[in-house]
Every structure is written in structure tokens, then in C-alpha cells.
Amino acid sequence: MTPPVRLTGAEVASIKRIVAERFGPAATVRVFGSRTRLEVRGGDLDLLVEVPESVDEAVAIRAGAAIEAALDELSTDLILRPLTRPPSRIERVAAETGVLL
Q1: What does the alpha-carbon distance between residue 13 and residue 40 come to, in Å, rounded to a whole number?
Q2: What predicted TM-score, i.e. pTM, was given to this entire model?
Q3: How much is the mean pLDDT over the chain?
Q4: 91: which of 5, 28, 67, 87 fits an S-S bond (Cβ 3.0–4.6 Å)?
């Protein structure tokens, strides 16, 4: 079943596959922002990826680029949060309002 976000099932599958490949099977990914509002059109893709431990920021940049490429160059903002540190305000909001894929 596709989560209630403005993405196709194939797009959700691509995001989950790329996140698992780049960050490991324990990583979780949430869509937050405009793509969670089913009644609007357009907008970029905002993702919160939570990982058990710190990851090099370059990995996050490459993962974001891979997701953009898989989704026909849909502009993607990827926030990476290691669970080993307290969340920032935006990370907390994204976790609370985002839709888990």
C-alpha cells in the first residue's frame, strides 16, 4: 500500500531502495512538507532520513542526487539525522509531521 503522500508506488519504492542501499536497512525515511498535503500540486520532495549512527555528509548528498535522478529530477531536500544526537527543531517537526515510508 502506498502511504498518503503525493508520490507513486514506484517512486516510494525507489526512495526506500536508495535509502537502504546508501544508509543500511536500519535507516528510516519520512516525507514531510508539501508532498504530504494531498490537495496541493507541485512542490519539492522533503525527506528526513534517520540513521543509527553518524554518516558522512557526502553520502547524504549522493543519496539525494540518486533519489532526484530516480524521480525524473524532482528537486529533493534530504535531511540526515543520526539517532546518536538530539534532533534539531526542523528534524523534530519533520519526525512529528512526516509520513513514514
Answers
A1: 22
A2: 0.92
A3: 93
A4: 87
- Other C-beta atoms closer than 10 Å to the C-beta of 65 total 14
Please tell me the distance from the alpha carbon of residue 46 to that of residue 16, in angstroms, as a whole number.
14
* 81 grid coordinates: 539525522
**Both ends of the chain: CA-CA distance in Å?**
10
* Per-residue confidence (pLDDT) for residue 3, from 0 to 100: 82
Residue pair 69/6 in contact (Cβ under 8 Å)? The answer is no
Residue 49 bridge partners (DSSP): 29, 80
Is the pLDDT at 42 greater than 90? The verdict is no
- How many C-beta neighbours within 10 Å does residue 77 have? 12
pLDDT over 90, % of the chain: 84
